């Protein structure tokens, strides 16, 4: 019985680890493929004075770890609703209309699915640690 439990525990742990490495690889692929498009979109919004450099520059300098924040900020802008980006500063729906007419952001949905998958893997790892005998 203990051997069966240990085998299942190691198998689930190994599968979670392999899936985690694969998910991080996919995250990096998204980053490499779309970081220039995201940077250009924010630069265009900044040139049109719809946002300021301070709204995203720190996360742009972070590289791959900041990519998720920039994509989430972009997704909020793309909803087409008035969005408060800082105290007393709002992004208007015109920003969404401009971005959608200029760029193809259909990949953002798949990026969010990847983030949910990574979150699931983290929860699975936490359960593995909690239920370790």
Please give a structural write-up.
The protein has helices at 2-47, 57-61, 64-78, 93-102, 107-130; strands spanning 83-86, 89-91. The protein has 133 residues and is mostly helical. It has a two-stranded antiparallel ribbon. Strand 1 (83-86) and strand 2 (89-91) form a beta hairpin. The mean pLDDT is 90.
Instruction: Round the Cα radius of gyration to an integer and report it.
Output: 19 Å
- Low-pLDDT windows of residues: none
- Major sheet details: 2 strands, antiparallel
Alpha-beta content class: mainly alpha
| Overall strand count | 2
The portion of residues assigned to helices is over 70%
Distance between the termini: 13 Å
Task: Specify the overall morphology.
Answer: elongated
Mean residue pLDDT: 90
The run of helices and strands is HHHEEHH
> Main sheet: which strands, in order across?
1-2
Q: How many helices does DSSP assign?
A: 5
Strand share of the residues?
A: 5-15%
């Amino acid at each position: 019985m203990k051997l069966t439990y240990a085998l299942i525990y190691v198998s689930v742990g190994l599968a979670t680890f392999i899936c985690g490495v694969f998910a991080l690889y996919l995250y990096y692929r998204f980053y490499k493929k779309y970081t220039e498009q995201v940077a250009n979109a924010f630069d265009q919004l900044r040139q049109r004075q719809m946002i300021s450099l301070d709204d995203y520059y720190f996360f742009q300098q972070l590289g791959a770890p900041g990519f998720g924040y920039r994509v989430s900020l972009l997704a909020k802008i793309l909803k087409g609703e008035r969005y408060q980006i800082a105290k007393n500063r709002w992004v208007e729906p015109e920003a969404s209309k401009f971005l959608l007419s200029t760029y193809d952001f259909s990949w953002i949905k798949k990026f969010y699915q990847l983030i949910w998958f990574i979150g699931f893997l983290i929860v699975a790892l936490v359960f593995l640690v909690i239920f370790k005998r």
